[in-house]
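Re: the multi-chain job from yesterday

Posting the exact lines I submitted so nobody has to dig through the queue logs.
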Amino acid sequence: MNKHPFDLALQLTPLEPGVYGGTTSEAYWNMVGPFGGVTAATALNAVLQHPSLLGEPVSLTVNYAGALLAGAFRITATAQRTNRSTQHWTIEMTQANASGVQEVMLTATALTALRRPTWGSEDTAMPGVALPTGLPEEKPMTGVEWVHRYDMRFVEGAFPREWDGRGEGSLSQLWMRDMPLRVLDFCSLSAMADIFFPRVYLRRALRVPAGTVSMTVYFHADSAQLRDAGTAYLLGQARAQTFRNGFFDQTSQLWSEAGLLLATTSQIVYYKE
Amino acid sequence: MNKHPFDLALQLTPLEPGVYGGTTSEAYWNMVGPFGGVTAATALNAVLQHPSLLGEPVSLTVNYAGALLAGAFRITATAQRTNRSTQHWTIEMTQANASGVQEVMLTATALTALRRPTWGSEDTAMPGVALPTGLPEEKPMTGVEWVHRYDMRFVEGAFPREWDGRGEGSLSQLWMRDMPLRVLDFCSLSAMADIFFPRVYLRRALRVPAGTVSMTVYFHADSAQLRDAGTAYLLGQARAQTFRNGFFDQTSQLWSEAGLLLATTSQIVYYKE
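And the result, structure tokens for all chains:
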């Protein structure tokens, strides 16, 4: 059986303990560099592949320091501290520059933990929206490759059709799943946390240079709950709180099709003009 | 003039480039270890003190790996990558254990940037709430020292008076300012981002062991806007989205008294039972 393009994109070769080699994926290429969601997933994958891993992901913060060039990269995951039930990670992704010097392209931190059953409360219900099957498949951002790796169906806040500067809100709600289908896991959920196109496009109905500089994902589900979500659609919702002097924020939620909140996430995004 | 206790708590002595020595502050002591907000502010301060600093803070993520012990700590801030207008930082805080080995107590990342005027939109208005002067000053969590360093006036979601398990929501809104008064800056804003007591206390009206493991702050204001906020109250709002198997999230906003959104922030918090 052929490997899924997402698994191919995430493939890491151990070079020494905690150090891996990888290669950027054409299948997930964005305008400049790879789709940031796949880069975040790769950072997490370096932790998940680590022989000292304790537990499962609870949080991940990735900082996009430079746009990855097509080709080889190196990634280092270090368990900075291991407690009884939690483990703190730092991650660094580098690429050799023209002089062969490894330059930092990404810094990240992650927390993994052994989760135990406790009292709980699901305080953020999935919005009641139209089912994905009744909605058209739409690609935001034509001309980039990675959008073809997802089936996306917008409920609200689709990619603007006219760039007339008449945008009003920044809220998008969309159903999403891997294409071809792939059973959900922490890496694919991390990638989908970055699926929302820049809020500034929607808010302004104007296409200006923009790029995520930092993204944080909180994982609320365990691996069994992600497996249960399977290959069904997730509902994602994203919204900005403010746009000011070159940076805006984005806060998002991702629910399983059955309505379980799987992850909450936030970004800070650079924009120009 | 005597130094403000916050400035004393943040005081760092350069040991070598990017490496500083500091001491925990009794004035900001929490139950176990210092108030996490002051620890976050100290991590940011190491960046702000760095001779290579470019621009002003845009984002900060701190991961609390272990509870700091009373006494000396060491903090290292490293500019991992400097671009034309952005700079990516990693920060590490360590303390010597009984054998003299430096153990990691905190990992953090930060982004600083030169911000330029652009189109903007303030999409998250400050809620219309009662003015602070008409509200009583209240301390959450009696018996801890740091709460006395803040003037806090709750609009909604005050510290539960009865621990009867009858909590309903997780929303708190409160006015806050340093006590004694101190002109706002990036460090004090970072500390105030962590002022909200654990949402699980409020949601359950039950006091269970809880502690922040990771906090991310996005700064939407520049230093001039923080100076303008001066010593006036800030309005803070915090809410959880879900509580599940030992971890809950918290998303928050902090506005100046004049209604400018200064920071948005999120946390993931460990809880027991």
